[in-house]
Amino acid sequence: MVDLFSVLGARDGAAIAGWREAASVSTPVSVAALRARVGAWRALALRTPGANAALYIDDSLEFAAALLGAWQAGKTVWLSADTLDASCVALARSVDCFLGEFPPRWTPLHPRQDEACALPWSGPDASFPALVVHTSGSTGEPQAIPKKLSQLTGEVSTLEALFGPAMGDAEIIATVSHQHIYGLLFKVLWPLAAGRAIHAASLAFPEQLALMLGQRPCALVASPAHLKRLPSHLDWSAAATCLRAVFSSGGPLAPDASVAAAHLLGHVPTEIYGSSETGGVAWRRHHPGSPGAWEALPGVAWRIAPDSGRLEVRSHHLGDDGWLELEDRVSSAPDARFLLLGRGDRLVKIEEKRISLDAIEAALLASGFASEARVIVCPERAGERQVLAAFVVASASGRALLGAEGKQALNALLRAHLGGVVEAVALPRRWRYLDQLPFNAQGKTTHAQLLALLGVGDARPRVPQVRLIERDAPPDGEPNGARVLLELVVPSTLFYFDGHFTQAPVLPGVVQVDWAIRYGREHFAVAPGFRGIHALKFQQVVRPDVPFRLELKYDSASCTLHFRYFSDAGQHAGGRILFGP
């Protein structure tokens, strides 16, 4: 079993521990510099009372320094996937201090600029209660999952033995956060123990990813949400040359997405199945014709619970030697492997986030504006993100708000109430307000009945509400008017707001261009054939439910459509679209 502290303490101080990127420039961080930061956080932790500390830092290198420094000071570190109010409140019940980047309300601590520790470099013993993974409020009542140092280092040793030889000295680049157990192991602890350089930032955009992956030998630690959306128009050839391995966890990666990612990146993604409770359980790689079966990691035993059909596991990654029953149903596959058949509870995965439908329903009821509520996952559409739908029977106050201000006002109020409890990705995107929930002859509200209320297919609007304000008289000899002015209002339920963005809905630029063409063809005899777009500019975002205007001018001589979106706030977008052969 690897001794993480001995490895890091024995490394050459001039060696590269990791990289930080700023303005497209990578700056190396030495092992000596990392150890110095560990000392600073150790000194802070030693002078801070209590045995339990919450930790949240975005930068993976600084996070690693704070984590190791806290451990050297004898602190058990509690992790949270976010800093939402509900998560911080749950942490505050158990921790003595907050370290890093929590909201000011929680008085987060940071080392002084000149902070240092003169104590000899050392680490705690294997039985030290090193970590508690604190699930966020988005999964219902937060659960504290303790981890001994031996559990973490034992899993790191397993990963290195199984996958390390193929990786060599590859640098670690990630799209995921280290605040979750998967990112913590794959992006921080494993590379530190193996002497691999860590890139401090988590990359969110594929353009960044394509650039970074093509610089030096590397391994990618990603999630299905990122791998299934790699754009094929980017040049991934350099990345495919430099990559040594691609990892994915947080949810199953669909076979077609795995094949597509392998085509672009040159490596079939290695999927890791596990959880905060169990650590890593199994792994697989999709190959044409394979059933997608999972192979247990070394040291992990599994079986199927006879009564529930659920997976049971026993491994060194658990806190004891007993069998743990999971929520996933499984079946046996050849070569001592297993197939996942789906979950047996009301926990779902949205963008690799574990979401409790029960917790969302409870929060809706707690708002005081709903007397009954049901939340379901909408059927997934190819190439689109999965979303939730909420069915609400409004309370008296909810009905009063609906009558006075309308559905959008109640939508906004309930979403705001949920915002302090669940992450943005878990907020329902579709809302239905009912006089009563449907029920069958047994008095049960079924999933099928709720789906029927959504209608066949996706009923969300694709176009705005439009009103003609002005139409110029056509010039002599012209069959159509040369100019029209339209008023547009974009409903908040617009299909194209989905995923653009989770923080606040913004009308995509490509949709604005599409609408300019749509209404240009509706009002003018626009020439067939699209030739190009000139002088395209987007100055201000377009928000839902706020009236704005679209001015269209068509020059039949040059087959050019001029368009301009504007409002009282100024110009939002504009450009020239050329038509003709």
UniProtKB/TrEMBL annotation:
Transmembrane segments: none
Gene3D superfamilies hit by this protein: 3.30.300.30, Hotdog Thioesterase (3.10.129.10), N-terminal domain of ligase-like (3.40.50.12780)
Stretches assigned to the ApeI dehydratase-like domain: 482-575
Boundaries of every AMP-dependent synthetase/ligase domain copy: 124-305
The organism's place on the tree of life at top rank: Bacteria
Keyword annotations of the record: Ligase
PANTHER family to which the protein is assigned, alphabetical: LONG-CHAIN-FATTY-ACID--COA LIGASE
Record-given protein name: AMP-binding protein
